[in-house]
Amino acid sequence: MKKNRAFLKWAGGKYPLIEDIRRHLPAGDCLIEPFVGAGSVFLNTDYKKYILADINSDLINLYNIVKERTSEFIGDARRLFDAESNTSQVYYLLRSEFNLCTTDAYRRAVLFLYLNRHCYNGLCRYNLSGEFNVPFGRYKKPYFPENELHWFAEKSQQAVFVCEHYQQTLNKAMQGSVVYCDPPYVPLSTTANFTAYHTNSFNNLEQQNLARIAYRLASEQQVPVLISNHDTLLTREWYCDAVLHVVKGRRTISRNILGRTKVNELLALYDYADRPGAND
């Protein structure tokens, strides 16, 4: 199966792990993703329906605009990918406009794609006031993802995009659904704590809560759940009720390119079919 790239740059995006994730995702009618991010899993799987959620309202707004106003959006966004717009002066002007643009959802979506492709490392980060604050990336010629936008728009006709807390999304899981969770990863060290990509942080209590919900969905409602995270002592403890698969991921946020090394990641599968006695 051909691999399709997301149109956004995204820290922790799952494109490099797609084959591993597909291998361990059970069959079903509907894939539910409470942490959709850039959507690489959605774009590279073949379910009849998708429920895709994220706590980031800018992300969900962008996805709904791309889904519903594809040609118009591509035409307007492309205009910001010329040489004149690829300067720090224009970047900071447009970033300010984005942060002040609270009522025009369409313009905010266009600016969000521009910022994503022109900012440092494709990061998505906000300050405590909810303002996007990633600096200019200084790329020679930022890529305009036209083909990726068209594929996303086509695929999204099977999807519903919602902005909500992961627990609300998981409450919608019915028998026949499959859940994939890609929460903010636990840090590998105290200096690597990059969990607040939005104004809401995702702490260890949230991680444990997610694991509890996954176990309940699989054991009580027969809805399989696959969770990805770093392979640490803590995550192995949290996911003790799941079948654990170790895969090699790649750290991509490190400022030092030598620090972008392969690290072990876990794919934790909660599946009622794997429980003792499930097939008796």
Structure description:
This protein is α/β, with parallel strands linked by helices. It is 35% helix and 15% strand. The chain is built from ten helices and seven strands. The chain has helices spanning 18-24, 40-43, 57-68, 70-78, 88-100, 105-118, 146-155, 166-170, 204-221, 233-238, and strands spanning 30-33, 49-54, 159-163, 177-181, 225-230, 243-250, 262-270. It has a seven-stranded mixed β-sheet with strand order 3-2-1-4-5-7-6. β4 (177-181), α9 (204-221) and β5 form a beta-alpha-beta unit. α3 (57-68) crosses α6 (105-118) and α5 runs antiparallel to α6 (105-118). The longest helix is centred in the last third of the chain and has 18 residues, at 204-221. The protein starts with 17 loop residues before the first helix and ends in a 10-residue tail after the last strand.
Low-confidence stretches: 193-199, 275-280
Percent helix range: 25-40%
What percent of residues are in strands? 15-25%
Query: What is the alpha-carbon Rg in Å?
Result: 19 Å
Envelope shape: globular
Lay out the secondary structure.
Blueprint: H1 18-24, E1 30-33, H2 40-43, E2 49-54, H3 57-68, H4 70-78, H5 88-100, H6 105-118, H7 146-155, E3 159-163, H8 166-170, E4 177-181, H9 204-221, E5 225-230, H10 233-238, E6 243-250, E7 262-270
Parallel strand pairs: 1-2, 1-4, 2-3, 4-5
Antiparallel strand pairs: 5-7, 6-7
Q: Which short descriptors sum up this protein?
A:
280 residues, seven-stranded mixed beta sheet, 15% strand
